[in-house]
Amino acid sequence: MNDYVNILIRSVLEALTEFLPVSSTGHLFLFSNFFPFQSIPGGEDFEDLFDIFIQSGAILSVVYVYYRELLERAKSTLGYLKKESTDKKDFDFYFGIAVGCVPVMILGFLVKDKLNVIKSSSYLLLILSVAWIIGGIIFLLVERLLSSKINEEETAYVTWQKALIIGTFQCIALIPGVSRSAATIITGRFLGLNRRQAAEYSFFLAVPVLIAAGLYKLLKYRDILNLENIVPLMIGFVLSFLFCIVVIRVFLMYIRKHSFEIFGYYRIVLGVSTLIFFYSGMK
């Protein structure tokens, strides 16, 4: 496959899976397993760096879509800190995001070497398939259990304690195939968040986490950042940013009237298909 066609497909794949609860990392691992870059230097290091660039494009799309809301919240937070206002809900929002991203940042740094081993493991497809299937079943159970208990028109208040719980369960997504979005959305639903609020909180919680991961990867792979590599990296970044803007808006429109069940079914079908492929390849 031509490398620039590969870039386009990966950018679309990232956009379709980063914020949907289906695991963008799992999809990218699966795709790169069959279609690695052919002529771009850097090997697996470039593959890893490219993934973080398109994830960074996805994160920028969140900032773009929500910049007015984030700016207003920032102004309100500043007013509270200056004691010009007693309304602390926006301060709690940012404090909650900060607290919520700490567990996964710490654990991710501690187990980063083990995660790299999993990525190159011969059992990667098995790990992905099991994670997709289990996550899909949990999604179906959660939606059916909570659909009658949560008023989708009401907005729950997210305390920093709730944010910490959501952020802690986000750590499960370090396992390929689990999905950061799925882990945070499911936890948010259990804590009383409606579908839109759970999805948006998942978006916001991703921003500092992936920015930190991006900075770490830039430092780690600085030796392969040259003119030859920066062009495909920036193309992937821009394409992912543009595609993600569309996906976020369509996703939010969809969950206004529909549950998350379709993503549970998708995960199960994908997981079973991957499992069959894995065992057929062992024969």
Could you explain the architecture of this structure?
There is one protein chain. With 283 residues, the chain is mostly helical. The chain has one domain (3-281). The chain is 77% helix and 0% strand. It contains 12 helices and no strands. The longest helix has 31 residues, at 227-257. 38% of the residues are buried. The mean pLDDT is 88.
* Helical run tally: 12
**Quantity of strands, as a count:** 0
Which class do the helix and strand fractions yield? mainly alpha
Mean pLDDT value: 88
* Head-to-tail CA distance between termini: 27 Å
Q: What percent of the residues sit in helical stretches (DSSP H or I)?
A: over 70%
- Strand fraction equals under 5%
Total count of domains: 1
Main sheet, how many strands, which sense, barrel?
none
Rg over CA atoms: 19 Å
What is the H/E string? HHHHHHHHHHHH
Quaternary: single chain
Shape: globular
Low-confidence stretches: none
List keywords for this structure.
single chain; 283 residues; mainly alpha; 12 helices; 0% strand; globular
Give the arrangement of secondary structure elements.
Layout: H1 3-17, H2 24-34, H3 43-65, H4 67-81, H5 89-110, H6 112-119, H7 124-146, H8 160-170, H9 180-190, H10 195-220, H11 227-257, H12 261-281
